[in-house]
Design brief:
By secondary structure, the protein is an alpha/beta fold. Helices cover about 35% and strands about 25% of the residues. The chain has 12 helices and 17 strands. Strand 13, helix 10 and strand 14 form a beta-alpha-beta unit. Helix 7 crosses helix 9. The mean pLDDT is about 95. It binds nicotinamide-adenine-dinucleotide.
């Protein structure tokens, strides 16, 4: 089996999780990570024998601190078949020059939007569109969560339109960026939010309206969706479709799943790296059907949900492995669940 050499540029919330997921794949080698700040995360990465590459201008600082580096960011790019760019929104597009210069493929994250992006991919839907591309984007956590949830119903029954109301976490747990502390912020005040348009980069002709409110929490988003199906089907069929959908986990209230804090506690009991919840967590008892309309509520662990998508897009861009085989490998290696908890 050919081994894909992967470099990760940006070792924050998403980059550290994607690097960890790459280390768990049988057909990938993590060449290393590019990091700007010489902090405890760098020290712990080195303890895990992850190679760390830094900007040339800061090499002396790292050496002064006794942190062993493996080279410059350019060295990492040169040694990799593909680069996952997980730098803050907007930086990835600027970094593209580096990847282009080295002739390397690149995967950008949800914060990047621009003409340089050749395709936006949610593997369940359009894995094959990443083939032969040099610059591909994995969309944001909210978009990925919406697409995954709508896709099964659209594929199996047909979807006429979607209204989605997003209750957003305002910052990640480790963020210093702030957010509303004792307030909720209409984000935007004047709808729609950008999420619907982003969903249409994958589900192109979907009629979808989204809007959002930011809340003073850090651990998850909650989406409340109203989905108009092309025909009315019984609730049990909706449950069956969602229970069959990859990376969607239905959780019953009877098992004590009511709050986002229950979802976070679940993540600890699953004993996954970084307490990741890779799945959409759909509250089983929230599913309500009425004359072709489906209502449901789901929680999205914003720090983790795009991790399996990045892994699959690496395979889509660098191999001829088909979508199902890639997603099977990813899901097994990351212990991803589906069905009813
Ligand atoms: P983050 O701020 O947690 O991490 C970014 C890291 O990149 C930081 O460690 C920063 O020091 C580093 N960095 C900045 N410039 C760099 C450079 N030139 N070279 C190397 N490293 C550099 O950001 P994040 O939350 O991981 O977000 C990364 C991307 O993922 C963004 O596009 C974001 O929109 C997207 N995304 C974030 C989330 C989330 O909830 N955090 C979810 C889905 C997608």
């Amino acid at each position: 089996m050919p081994i894909i050499k992967v470099g990760v540029v940006g070792f924050g919330t998403i980059g550290s999780r994607v690097a960890d997921a790459v280390l768990r794949q049988p057909d990938m080698k993590l060449v290393g990570v590019a990091k700007v700040t010489p902090d405890y995360k760098a020290k712990l990465a080195l303890e895990r024998e992850i190679n760390v590459f830094v900007p040339e201008s800061s090499m002396d600082r790292w050496e002064e601190l006794g942190l062993k580096i493996s080279g410059t960011v350019e060295d990492l790019i040169d040694s990799s078949d593909i680069v996952i760019d997980a730098t803050p929104g907007g930086v990835g597009l600027k970094n593209l020059e580096l990847y282009k210069k080295a002739g390397r493929k690149a995967i950008l994250q949800g914060g990047e939007r621009g003409e340089a992006v050749e395709a936006t991919i949610v593997p369940q839907v359009n894995y094959h569109e990443a083939r032969g591309k040099m610059v591909v984007r994995v969309p944001s956590c909210n978009t990925t969560g919406l697409v995954r949830c709508i896709w099964g119903l659209r594929r199996e029954v047909g979807v006429e339109r979607v209204f989605a109301f997003l209750v957003r976490r305002s910052a990640d747990p480790a963020d210093k960026k702030g957010g509303p502390l004792d307030s909720m912020e209409l984000n935007p005040v004047r709808p729609p939010s950008h999420h619907g348009e982003d969903v249409r980069t994958v589900l192109r002709d979907l009629s979808i309206f989204t809007t959002a409110v930011k809340t003073p929490v850090t651990h998850a988003h909650v989406h409340m969706l109203l989905i108009k199906l092309s025909k009315a089907i019984p609730r049990r069929d909706v449950v069956d479709i969602l229970a069959e959908e990859r990376r969607v986990l239905l959780v019953p209230e009877s098992l004590g799943m009511r709050r986002t804090s229950d979802v976070f506690e679940l993540s600890r009991h699953l004993k996954r790296p970084f307490n990741n919840i890779y799945e959409n967590i759909v509250w089983l008892d929230s599913i309500h059907c009425d004359e072709g309309w489906v209502y449901l509520a789901q929680a999205i662990h914003q720090e983790a949900i795009v991790v399996p998508e990045n892994v699959d897009v690496i395979r889509a861009m660098c191999t001829d492995v088909d979508a199902e085989s890639s997603m099977n490998t990813t899901d097994i290696r990351l212990g991803i669940r589906k069905g009813i908890l």
